[in-house]
Amino acid sequence: MKKNKTPAADHQLLKAIPKVDEFLGWINDEGQDAPLRLVKKAVRQLLDDVRQAILGGEEQSAVALDKSRLLPRFHQRLDKLMAPHFRTVINATGVVVHTNMGRSLLPDSAMAGIVAAGGRYSNLEFDLATGKRGSRYSLVEELLCELTGAEAGLVVNNNAAAVLLALDTLANGREAIVSRGQLVEIGGSFRIPDVMEKSGARLVEVGATNRTHLRDYEQAISQETALLLKVHTSNYKMIGFTSEVPLEELVALGRKEGLAVMEDLGSGSFIDLSRFGLDREPTVQEVVKSGADVITFSGDKLLGGPQAGLSVGRRDIIARF
Ligand SMILES: *Cc1c(COP(=O)(O)O)cnc(C)c1O
Question: Does residue 186's CB lie within 6 angstroms of at least one atom of ligand 1?
């Protein structure tokens, strides 16, 4: 039966709930090393819980308000508040590079490098040869170019940011043409149409979900077109009656029409995974070779590094990011 009014007995119980200061007195001498702010938060949460339980009729006995009952509950709460938010977990999903579980694990040598670099001063933004301020980006750019064969490269915090920067640079206020089969969503927060909108580029969808042809791109090109965008669909597969336009053909079309061509490669790999019996993924080197102006990919997917977004491509474009 639902009670509309709090019965008198409950009022007695409610009045018996210790005040926050009183409760703090109980625990003062127990050698807490938690910050007072968290201790108070735990006390308030606990007393609020007790109050709600009484109001809801779930708690009707004064025994629950005993110091001996409340203190263990307080400590449980405090432990929870003190526990680090970031924890290691066991990945039992069967997905090795799991988007929600830290993705690629770093090898010991990389971990050792991070520990050594993070706890020491370094030449991160200092040119040791000239003794002057250097660029944060130059150290890694050289390596990226060497590994991928690209002219220039830039590292930002994740691939979503790399894509946003590239779209903003190449197509803000103008049109970018994308196949309908490539308007992907990654992990819920990254969707090609949404990123496009944020960048200020206007999305022009072409083709059908399963098939897009070169003539679809050709017919969509207008005065407003700035970019031909290809998105590598690394997290889902279409099978059956499908076709997409190879990057080489998009590059040729872009050259002919004076348009930039970009590929969001998603999970950029530097090695051919089919050697290990896995599905073949285009390597970054191959995509660079095919002539795309900008290629973006994640540092922490197949590349196996820390969270990062990598862009490589034409020097004059990367310089404008
Ligand atoms: C994963 C992925 C992204 C987003 O990369 P983050 O590193 O998670 O920001 C963008 N585009 C494609 C095609 C992807 O696969």
Answer: yes
Interatomic CA distance for residues 149 and 237, integer angstroms: 29
Q: Is the CB of 181 under 6 A from ligand 1?
A: no
Residues of the chain within CATH 3.40.640.10 domain(s) are: 136-318
Q: What is the mean pLDDT for each group of 10 consecutive residues in the chain (321 residues)?
A: 57 92 83 85 96 90 92 94 93 92 93 93 93 90 96 96 97 98 87 95 97 98 98 90 97 98 94 91 95 97 93 97 93
Q: Residue 260 C-alpha to ligand 1 middle, in angstroms?
A: 20
Which residue, among 24, 34, 28, 29, has the nearest Cα to 82 in the 3D structure?
Answer: 34
What is the DSSP secondary-structure string of 131-189?
A: TEE--TTHHHHHHHHHHH--SEEEEES-HHHHHHHHHHHHHTTSEEEEEGGG--EETTT
Does the CB atom of residue 163 touch ligand 1 within 6 A?
yes
Select the CATH number that applies to the domain covering 136-318 from these four: 3.40.50.1980, 1.10.10.10, 3.40.640.10, 3.30.1330.60.
Answer: 3.40.640.10
176 lines ligand 1 (CB under 6 A): no
Query: What pLDDT, on the 0 to 100 scale, is given for residue 186?
Result: 87
With 0-12 / 13-18 / 19 or more C-beta atoms within 10 angstroms meaning exposed / middle / buried, residue 232 is buried
Does residue 160 line the site of ligand 1, with CB under 6 A? yes
What's the CA-to-centroid distance between 285 and ligand 1, angstroms? 18
Ligand 1 atom 15, closest CA: 266
Q: Of 3, 307, 25, 296, which Cα lies nearest the Cα of 165?
A: 296
Pocket test for ligand 1, best of 101, 163, 298 (most atoms within 8 A of CB): 298
pLDDT for position 74? 95
